[in-house]
Amino acid sequence: MGAGHDHGPAVDDTAGVPGDYRKKLWIAFGITATIVVAQAVGSVITGSLALLTDTAHAITDASGLLVALIAATLMLKPTSSRRTWGFRRIEVIAALGQATLLLVVGFYTAIEGIRRLFEPPDVPSTELLIFGIVGLTANVIAIAILSSSRGANFNMRAAFLEVLNDALGSLGVIVAAIMIATTGFQRADAIAGLFIAALIVPRAFKLMRETTSVLMEFTPKGLDLDEVRAHILELDHVKDVHDLHASTVATGLPTITAHVVVEDECFTDGHAAEVLHAVKQCVAEHFEVSVSHSTFQVETEHISDDEPDSVKHP
């Protein structure tokens, strides 16, 4: 006896019409892509490490917005017998690739920035300031567009953080340009580049850790399986819990499965269905992470004894 759920795409009750979010993402992506082109030209003209780093950062942010846009579209595709979760996990795979790119950019910037501290090149401050202001202005517009919807779902929060982080990078470029113009301190460009790298690398490590945890099907953060087992064992008629597993399919979609051993009489007096309902309600309401997608096999001790020991874990 088990419990199943509709594994179709989740509907965002706060989103209204999904197209509204896609439109905002399209606008933010267009603005960020424009920043990439402008800053790429500026980095060639000025030879600035800070601007080059911010360009690479903007490319990553633009790709992140594009991934958010694609994910927002694919999540609406129906599930099938071949794709029971649809395309929900594509965001995880794409995020892992994004994290890898961020690390490459961050480490390159750190190495090049240290080198330029000892051999600072001449960087034209005026041009650097102009491109920095252009980048910051565009980012502020994108932030204004996304801010009202940043709490709606994971994609919108991620998109908002992308442009916010890029705005900080543009601010670093502007500060470097002003310091070079007022003091002639050419190392300000390298310092700004290192500052941007310091923004990139920690985020990349965090993103890589989170996406790897999902792909490795680790227990969702905030869900203690020992506590889950203890709660289930406290329910009436439950004698044992084994083969307990929990993982995350995609952002906001934790799942849990288990074999729940009950008294033999439960299958004749109707208590088995009550136990199943109680277990489902337990994992959905009693913990920090609410798990609505759950599958439980309710069985007798005799059935449990027939299962090989290798299956009974953890």
From TrEMBL:
Entry keywords, A to Z: Ion transport, Membrane, Transmembrane, Transmembrane helix, Transport
Gene Ontology cellular component terms for the protein in this record: plasma membrane
GO molecular function, one term: zinc ion transmembrane transporter activity
Main location: membrane
Subcellular location: Membrane
Topology class, membrane: Multi-pass membrane protein
TM helices/strands, residue ranges: 25-52, 58-76, 88-108, 128-147, 159-182, 188-205
Domain of life: Bacteria
Location of the Cation efflux protein cytoplasmic domain: 220-300
Gene3D superfamilies named in the record: Cation efflux protein transmembrane domain (1.20.1510.10)
Domain Cation efflux protein transmembrane: 25-216
Protein family per UniProt: Belongs to the cation diffusion facilitator (CDF) transporter (TC 2.A.4) family. SLC30A subfamily.
NCBIfam families named among the record's database cross-references: CDF
Name of the protein: Cation transporter
Organism of provenance: Aeromicrobium piscarium
Lineage: Bacteria, Bacillati, Actinomycetota, Actinomycetes, Propionibacteriales
